[in-house]
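R.M. (postdoc): so does anyone remember the format we settled on? I'll just put the structure tokens first.
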């Protein structure tokens, strides 16, 4: 006797996929792929492109700010670090308060700006070129107060390296050395409207070793400077300022 499986038709049967079904599936897959491509394009345009633009904007901004800071620093270096001035600038009374009043010229016709320019340029060079082991701090303060930042930084670097005194210590085999600058001549150069005032200063530097004169050097420097109007400064209209902007040795 043969027993017939009851569910043989159910488990053995399968559905045949027609051509219309394949076409529908292809269209569905194509539409899905296009949808994802459009979504990816939208995402890139909305987020990635914006991030890229912001990154380029930040880079450009950093470059611009760096350039601006450099330009501001370069401009700032042309101005004095301090407006105070350590000379006696002007007095027409209370002269008994000072131990020494120096007449700059016996020629009353000579312009007071020229007289003061010559005197201040000479005094600046004298203080700049002199050296005393106990007076370096005061010398640095003087040069700082009466120089542009660029001139002061150059002078400070020279002092810190010992570029002037170390060769003399090696030469004289001692550190008991001082330098004394003596001004011989200050020649003011013709000035155009757009340029700063300038002068050529000739001077001697005495080498004092153990309190005895050991040698003398002759030098010449070209300085450019700015000077306030003397009459306006004496009237209190503007502050009195004298600033060395360049300091260069010449042959």
């Amino acid at each position: 006797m043969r027993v017939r499986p009851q569910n043989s038709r159910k488990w053995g049967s399968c559905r045949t996929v027609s051509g219309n079904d394949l076409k529908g599936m292809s269209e569905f897959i194509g539409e899905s792929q296009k949808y994802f491509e459009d979504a990816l394009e939208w995402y890139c345009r909305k987020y990635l492109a914006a991030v890229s633009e912001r990154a380029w904007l930040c880079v450009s901004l950093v470059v611009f700010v760096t350039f601006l800071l450099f330009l501001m620093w370069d401009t700032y270096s042309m101005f004095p670090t301090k407006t105070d001035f350590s000379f006696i600038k002007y007095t027409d009374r209370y002269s008994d308060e000072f131990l020494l009043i120096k007449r700059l010229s016996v020629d009353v016709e000579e312009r007071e700006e020229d007289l003061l320019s010559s005197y201040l340029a000479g005094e600046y060079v004298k203080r700049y070129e002199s050296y005393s082991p106990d007076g370096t701090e005061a010398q640095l303060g003087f040069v700082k107060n009466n120089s542009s930042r660029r001139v002061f930084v150059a002078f400070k670097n020279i002092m810190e390296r010992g570029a002037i005194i170390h060769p003399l210590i090696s030469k004289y085999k001692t550190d008991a050395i001082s330098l004394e600058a003596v001004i011989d001549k200050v020649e003011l150069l013709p000035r155009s409207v757009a340029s700063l005032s300038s002068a050529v200063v000739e001077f001697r530097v005495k080498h004092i070793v153990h309190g005895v004169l050991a040698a003398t050097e002759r030098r010449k420097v070209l300085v450019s400077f700015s000077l306030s109007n003397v009459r306006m400064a004496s009237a209190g209209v503007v502050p009195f300022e004298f600033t060395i902007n360049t300091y260069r040795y010449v042959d």
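R.M.: ...and that's the designed sequence above, right after the tokens. Also worth knowing: The helical segments are 8-12, 19-76, 112-129, 136-145, 149-161, 165-172, 230-234. The first strand starts at residue 177 and ends at 188.
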